[in-house]
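Milestone M4 deliverable, item 7.
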Amino acid sequence: MLQSVFLYTASIIITIWGVAHIIPTGGVVAGFGKLSGDNKKIITMEWIAEGLTLVFIGLLTLAVTVLVGRDDPGARIVYRGCALMLVVMAGLTLFTGARTKIIPIKICPFVKTAVAILFFVGSMG
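Output delivered:
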């Protein structure tokens, strides 16, 4: 039962984190100052892509938990695969964006890692 709570909680957290990532896209791009049109488009695309990836991971794990159940072997593959992807994304953020002065990006690797741990622990047993 506790593992299911971990999975639901982690799914909701990372989905909200992804939406919160997407919402300020315009402000984030504006924060870079004067950019070429192409650079604005690339930063916008990448910022939204990461947010959508986080939302996808959250909604996928939530759907699998609700529709299949956490004890299904396929569900465990999904949980652990999503956890691995979040760890990879956390590492990328840690060595790139987290080196900026932007506080939410500095927090991001910890959020992703915490959710990855919840997914992994939720897949156990």
